[in-house]
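quick one: zinc ion bound model?
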Amino acid sequence: MSSASHIVCPHCGAINRIPGDRLTDAPKCGKCHGALFTGHPLALDDDNFQRHLARNDIPLLVDFWAPWCGPCKMMAPAYEQAAAQLEPHIRVAKLNTEVAQAIAAQYQIRSIPTLALFRDGKEIARQPGAMGAADIVRWATSHS
Ligand SMILES: [Zn+2]
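yep, here:
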């Protein structure tokens, strides 16, 4: 793979252009020098959701969750494990539907947790309900 990917920095939001063969080489942000992939889900909100949705060349996986949701809390460790495995080929993120209510409404999130996979700003797959780490990785990989 030699083509370059645009990757939005999870720390400062800068758009980095990373050659394809450098994606797995622990790339750092050219602006803030933070790691572009931390292996942990990135918290999205009203301020950064659109940018990560529209400006990443890699797929974006979003866990729509809420603090009061028991199954969401149960899935959180599995989602952490999945993030470590899916990055840097998929940007793994989570969105608190209590905080970013407008986004949850826009995507008509009716039950949580719901996983949604986006590419080039468009939703390409959705899966409601909690899953284990292996199932999350398998599901996201098969749709991306
Ligand atoms: Zn940065």
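Residues 9, 11-12, 14, 29, 31-32, 34 surround zinc ion (CB under 6 Å).
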